[in-house]
Design brief:
By secondary structure, the protein is of the alpha/beta class. The chain contains 12 helices and 20 strands. The chain has 2 domains: about 230 residues, Alpha-Beta Barrel (TIM Barrel), CATH 3.20.20.10; about 130 residues, Lyase, Ornithine Decarboxylase, Chain A, domain 1 (Beta Barrel), CATH 2.40.37.10. Strands 2-3-4-5-6-7-8-9 form an 8-stranded parallel barrel, surrounded by 5 helices.
Length: about 375
């Protein structure tokens, strides 16, 4: 692990990432492919490093959002299939073709342009066709599938290698009927396709929630994202362990800083901007060099907790751009330079991404992306 340059560091445990992938492999079985979703810098964990670690334990298909992410992985030497979940744009046809990327398609003009470019370069590009069965986002409608497949068959330089869709609410316990209906609709599309096509086309719809709660949605391939990084999609480890007792996810990211000053303050002292916290007793306040510029958002003011010496200490006053204050009055002596855990474990205590998300009034996905994007990362 390299020496960090900043007070603040995000630590990425690649062995935990690999263990999560292997746990998912055990859950879905050997016959089902796994697309490791490493888009958005692997949810803030480091795209290249995570993809390489996953490749070393058997991952051979990777999901990214944009073309530049796929190119970055190829330039890092990553092999296997790289699927562009947001497709591509006309100015990037050559990059898609040259780097053997697999775009998700949902637009006639893009398809015809990609075909022309591939034919000129005398190469063939694999594509995955996306069908919208209820997400209301990217994808063609089920009644358009036949015309799109007919078009793809006519166009030179491209071939259909996959069909996919996406669940909008597979993580919500009160959406079981909706999810089953959407799965049935997608399976109907696949059945109709199979009756007309003899070639192998990979089908996939299951995200992390679906691979845990809807095993019938596994089809040919699953697409774990948040579960790879050690978080449960519905913030409910108990529910997930009931559904899949063997799947024990390990958090991959931790976020740490240090104490840079201890202040002794009497009762009645205002703390930080706006004095939203006023001491009621003689207090010891620790100053931390982390704030909303580091993804530790202002909404955490007067509600978050951190770990110092294996014990919890509350954030007091408003989080600043580069500083946060915590009350350590009830802790054993705290000193300048002591390690502070904002996310992760220390001693017997742990602060989870779901807990931080609750304080932030958001979801673990956003917490991980924020912390990973705005801080120096070290890998171990």
């Amino acid at each position: 692990m390299t020496q960090p340059l900043s007070y603040n560091r995000v630590e990425i445990d690649l062995s935990a990432l690999q263990a999560n992938f292997q746990g998912i492999r055990k859950t879905v079985g050997q016959q089902i492919n796994i697309m490791a979703v490493v888009k958005s810098d692997a949810y803030g964990h480091g795209q290249v490093e995570c993809a390489q670690a996953l490749y070393s334990v058997g991952a051979r298909t990777f999901g990214v959002a944009e073309v530049w992410e796929g190119v970055k992985l190829r330039r890092a030497g990553l092999e296997g299939d790289i699927v562009l979940l947001l497709g591509g744009s006309p100015e990037l046809y050559a990059d898609i073709i040259r780097h053997k990327l697999t775009p998700v398609v949902f637009d006639v003009d893009f398809l015809t342009g990609l075909s022309d470019a591939a034919a000129r370069m005398k190469m063939e590009v694999k594509v995955h066709l996306k069908v919208d069965v209820g997400m209301g986002r990217i994808g063609i409608m089920p009644d358009e599938v036949e015309s799109y497949i007919s078009l793809i068959k006519r166009l030179p330089g491209i071939s259909l290698s996959g069909m996919l869709s996406h669940f909008p609410a597979a993580d919500e316990i009160d959406s079981l009927e909706t999810t089953h209906t959407q799965l049935a609709q997608f399976k109907n599309v696949l059945a109709d396709l199979k009756s007309k096509e003899s070639g192998k086309i990979v089908s996939h719809i299951a995200n992390s929630a679906a691979l845990i709660y809807f095993p019938k949605s596994h089809l040919d391939m699953v697409r774990p994202g948040i579960s790879l990084y050690g978080c449960y999609p519905d913030a409910s480890p108990t529910r997930a362990k009931t559904a899949v007792p063997t799947l024990e996810l390990q958090p991959v990211m931790s976020f740490k800083t240090r104490v840079i000053q201890i202040k002794e303050m009497g009762p009645g002292c205002g703390i930080s901007y706006g004095h939203t916290f006023v001491t009621r007793r003689k207090s010891r306040i620790a100053v931390l060099p982390v704030g909303y510029a580091d993804g530790y958002l202002r909404i955490l003011s007067n509600r978050a907790q951190v770990l110092i010496g294996g014990r919890r200490a509350p954030v007091c006053g408003r989080v600043c751009m580069n500083a946060t204050l915590v009350d350590v009055t009830d802790l054993p002596p705290v000193h300048t330079g002591d390690e502070v855990v904002l996310l992760g474990h220390q001693g017997d205590e742990r602060i989870t991404a779901d807990e931080v998300a609750q304080w932030m009034e958001t979801i673990s996905y956003e917490v991980l992306c924020l912390f990973g994007t705005f801080n120096e990362r070290v890998f171990r």
